[in-house]
DNA sequence: AACTTGACGAGGG
DNA sequence: CCCCTCGCCAAGT
């Protein structure tokens, strides 16, 4: 299993490309969907190389609802700004509400702790 | 080959 | 909630 493998990356892109504007997914969520051979870390590596591909990489964030790139792109948080332009609200600590913005691909049954709240 | 570093995340204190 | 540790695994030195 190698991140350099085109087919390996393509499986990740296929999912990310389905995330609609204004919605997000976490690295771990994508990893658990793809299963064997995929972990949150490897998804991060794939996304790192996704810049040149036709993929809305900004819609993939960490499980805390924050952008892991916040400390990489200075002085401004590019990824967060891109998402804010799509309508995603981030609090003063750089976190958004995953219950509200998390996207679930077709056919994927969310785990109990991932299900959006029935009561707003 | 050994060791360090992350676009990560769950669990415990 | 925040902080820390540990498991994870590919890449870079």
Provide structural commentary.
This protein has 120 residues and is mainly alpha-helical. 33% of the residues lie in helices and 3% in strands. The chain has 5 helices and 2 strands, in the order αβααβαα. The chain has helices spanning 6-16, 27-34, 40-48, 78-85, 98-101, and strands spanning 25-26, 60-61. It has a two-stranded parallel sheet with strand order 1-2. The radius of gyration is 14 Å and the shape is globular.
Pick out its properties.
mainly alpha; DNA-binding
Q: What is the strand content?
A: under 5%
Shape: globular
Structural class by SSE content = mainly alpha
Distance between the termini: 41 Å
Largest sheet: 2 strands, parallel
- Helix run count: 5
Mean pLDDT: 88
Give a quick precis of the structure.
33% of the residues lie in helices and 3% in strands.
Topology of this protein?
Elements: H1 6-16, E1 25-26, H2 27-34, H3 40-48, E2 60-61, H4 78-85, H5 98-101
Parallel strand pairs: 1-2
The chain binds a DNA duplex (13 and 13 nucleotides) through helix 2, helix 3 and strand 2.
């Amino acid at each position: 299993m190698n991140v350099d493998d085109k087919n390996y990356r393509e499986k990740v892109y296929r999912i990310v490309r389905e995330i609609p504007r204004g919605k997000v997914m976490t690295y771990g969520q994508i990893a658990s969907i793809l299963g064997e051979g995929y972990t949150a870390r490897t998804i991060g590596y794939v996304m790192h190389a996704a810049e040149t591909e036709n993929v809305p990489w900004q819609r993939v964030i960490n499980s805390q609802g924050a952008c892991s790139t916040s400390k990489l792109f200075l002085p401004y948080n590019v990824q967060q700004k891109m998402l804010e332009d799509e309508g995603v609200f981030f609090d003063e600590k750089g976190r958004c509400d995953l219950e509200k913005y998390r996207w679930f691909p077709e056919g994927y049954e969310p785990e109990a702790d991932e299900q959006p709240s029935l009561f707003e």
